[in-house]
């Protein structure tokens, strides 16, 4: 299986990359500027915001599957610079979707739970969307642009965490870094979500592609946490002091963009129709710890090592 992964230097892309290599796929990994060195994968630099770049990339690599991970994910920067957010989350996504459709490749596009306004969840795929910040608006526009350009594509709404090649990128790594340093940190008590371990997400994405699924799918852990509760679980699993985490409400810390309050996802559609295994939240956190003990985070860090010079 030939698979193309965009945004392969980021948290999601790098984990999908390793999962693809481990599955024995023929992998092409793309990133804008950070070189990737991984045995079993080819790296191509690509600025997919440039007109025609996505079509050229698909023509060069001839993938059967495309996993589009590249995106603008800094919520506060999106609020400050919406043109940047829409260029990456809508226009780039549409270009990749159109190129995948023209090439006859199956595609899965990664969206977000932030397309909802934070009303009572868990949210289903058919529930009304109503984003309250520019990040959510740009991602919802991206969903619509992807499906308009390529009706056969799959769009996945999710919220994930895990080990990243840069370190302290995911919320779990942020909590863990502070806790290990003995630094006090905040945990939001008023924001609930269904965080999925990125390794489980990667396997679910493969299942979607294998099944030829299209349209919108929700992928979250079974159950939900407040972000404060999530941090406390991280502390407990890693045998660290949960009292370092202060329970606070999100409006008290001066965030630029509004945050939706309930982002929990109902993933029953994926579980029932595609038989995707989505474990409980606590199980995912335990596996997050086991992965570190087995050296997984070191594998990710080595992906972005500078290529050796001749």
Describe this structure in words.
With 310 residues, the protein is α/β, with parallel strands linked by helices. The chain has eleven helices and 13 strands. It has helices at 11-22, 53-61, 75-80, 82-103, 134-149, 171-181, 198-210, 227-237, 268-274, 281-293, 296-303, and strands at 2-6, 26-31, 41-45, 65-68, 106-110, 154-158, 160-161, 185-188, 192-193, 196-197, 215-219, 225-226, 245-248. The strands form four sheets. A seven-stranded parallel β-sheet has the order 3-2-1-4-5-6-11, with helices on both faces. Helix 1 crosses helix 7 (198-210) and helix 2 packs parallel to helix 4. The longest helix is centred in the first third of the chain and has 22 residues, at 82-103. It is globular and about 55 Å long. The two termini are 32 Å apart. The mean pLDDT is 95.
Summary of the model, kept short:
It is built from eleven helices and 13 strands. The protein is α/β, with parallel strands linked by helices and 310 residues long. Helix 1 (11-22) packs across helix 7, helix 2 (53-61) runs parallel beside helix 4 and helix 4 (82-103) packs parallel to helix 5 (134-149).
List keywords for this structure.
single chain, alpha/beta, 7-stranded parallel β-sheet, 16% strand, two-stranded parallel sheet, 310 residues
């Amino acid at each position: 299986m030939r698979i193309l992964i965009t945004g392969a230097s980021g948290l999601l892309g790098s984990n999908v990359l390793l999962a693809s290599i481990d599955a024995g796929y023929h992998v092409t990994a793309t990133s804008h500027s950070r070189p990737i060195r991984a045995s079993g994968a080819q790296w191509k630099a690509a600025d997919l915001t440039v007109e025609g770049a996505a079509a050229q990339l698909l023509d060069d690599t001839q993938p059967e599957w495309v996993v589009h991970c590249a995106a603008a994910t800094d919520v506060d920067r999106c609020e400050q610079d919406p043109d940047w957010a829409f260029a990456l989350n809508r226009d780039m996504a549409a270009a990749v979707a159109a190129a995948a459709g023209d090439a006859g490749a199956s595609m899965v596009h990664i969206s977000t739970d932030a397309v909802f306004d934070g009303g009572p969840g868990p949210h289903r795929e058919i529930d009304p969307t109503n984003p309250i910040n520019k990040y959510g608006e740009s991602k919802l526009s991206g969903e619509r642009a992807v499906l308009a350009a390529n009706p056969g594509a799959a769009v996945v709404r999710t919220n994930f965490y895990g080990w990243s090649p840069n370190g302290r990128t995911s919320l779990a790594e942020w909590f863990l870094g502070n806790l290990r340093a003995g630094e006090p940190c905040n945990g939001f008590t008023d924001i609930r979500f269904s965080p999925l371990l990125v390794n489980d997400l990667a396997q679910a994405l493969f299942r979607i592609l294998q099944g030829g699924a299209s349209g919108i799918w929700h992928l979250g852990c079974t159950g939900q946490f407040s972000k404060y509760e999530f941090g406390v679980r991280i502390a407990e699993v890693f045998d660290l002091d949960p009292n370092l985490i202060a329970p606070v409400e999100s409006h008290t810390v001066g965030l630029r963009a509004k945050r939706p309050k309930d982002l929990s996802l109902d993933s029953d559609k994926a579980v029932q129709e595609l038989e995707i295994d989505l474990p409980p939240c606590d199980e995912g956190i335990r596996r997050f710890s086991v992965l570190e003990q087995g050296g997984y985070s070191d594998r990710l860090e080595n992906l972005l090592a500078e290529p050796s010079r001749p």
